[in-house]
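Tokens for DNA repair protein RecO. Go.
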Amino acid sequence: MLQKVEGIVIRTTDYGEANKILTLYTRELGKIGVMARGAKRPKSRLSSISQLFTHGQYVFQKTSGLGVLNQGEMIQSFRDLREDLFLTAYGAYIVELLDKLTEQYEINPYLYELLFQTLKYIDEGLDYEVLTRIFEVKMLKVAGIGLYVDGCSHCGATEGEYSFSVKEGGFLCHRCLHVDERTIKISSGTAKLLRLFYHFDLNRLGAISVKTETKVQLKQVLECYFDEYSGLYLKSKRFLNQIDKMKLE
């Protein structure tokens, strides 16, 4: 049976001399795998639509196992994202994170839209570091390790300065710091952004302007939290850290 889907290539694997196995994240079916026969050949009609990050319409033969890609039509190539080393590193991390946290054929149109909008904004030149942090925050719910960001996770206080507690899964006010001796000190701006990222709709994103210090704190908080609870090992994260070091040199 032929099936038509709108999807984004989130992983490619070479198979034999000429073929590729594509992992697509689709609006209609969630994550699926398809064989793209001959896609490694430069003149193949499947070559251009089999590149990482490509957004397109895909027609495939659905089977009990791996589907077979028949044809496809590109909607967006996200060319700027693919041709810039830094953007590619961040994009690779985003799609691998999604890949690791989702199962085959779990339909989630919201997650599809989140992925599409994140890659689109990065391709358009918006702050890729901030967009990556937003994506990470949104993926915490998918991973089943959501945060408590609406107040102190211990006493519920909704005003004042906060620190972040990996142990408590959210903010701690100054009166509750005794609960966790290893809190991460964060600014009020970082706390506000974490709360905003957790609740807001990415489609409503406006201009982004975040201080470097705040970016560093956001990265530290989310990295520690994922490392503690997700159980993930991402190859792209290692490369991303190397890229970030290059920026500082």
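The mean pLDDT is 94.
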